[in-house]
Input
Amino acid sequence: MKNIKSHFKFNKQERSGIFFLLLIIVLLQVGYFIFRSFPSSESMNSFSQDFETQAQIDILKKNAFEKDSVKFYPFNPNFITDYKGYALGMSVQEIDRLHAFRSENKFANSPEEFQSVTKISDSLLKAIAPYFKFPEWTKKSKQYSAKSVQYSKLVKSTIEFKDINLATAKDLKSIYGIGEKLSNRIIKFRDRLGGFLVEEQLYDVYGLEAEVVQRALKKYKVLNPPQIKKININTASVETLTKLIYLQKNVAINIVSYRNSEGSIKSFEELAAIENFPSEKIDRIALYLSL
Output
């Protein structure tokens, strides 16, 4: 017993050491329990933060999807390329019908005419027609064409059209609304073109009202379009492009600059993005160009 008691006898310093040891153990235990309480609240915070992060990720995914998806902007359907036709949902046969129609220098000037040429379904026309953008002159001509439909049907079989490319200034003055000045202006414009390729070019004569053009086209048509050498827009110089009556020199410079920066022009629709380009006349300008 004496030996056992001797193990429990401590001097003052030893008792102080044991006390501090116990104090340290207690503090460590308290600290441990306090430490364990932090991860719980932290995990709750991180869980809440994950919702915010996930929301941001969802937004980024949505933006990426919208960026990668095909977007359509207003365009003239007469110049649909194979790629754009596929993107719109047209079949190969429908695209080929449009290209065959355009190879005859003809234009569809309304969604209904476009459907008549391509034979696309009503559902597809309904989906893509809102993006169609036809030149301004087609809107003007429709205002008068509706009034003259019945009349034109009655006289169609009796009228013998004359070639607008052979008409003299005296012939043109027989049209109501065309006087000395306008008749000479039409002849001068025709000479600069080398001859009218399509009747719609009459709308480009300065000062010639749409209703006067309608009267002229009841008597005159392009019966023998001139043979022209198309200008390769990817190789032509500024001087060559400026020879085309529709292009001013500053526009020709912008075309060459755009071509040099992009490497080449792959479709006529790209021209609309060039500064000062007369995009409302792209259908006529394209008749004189090749890619």
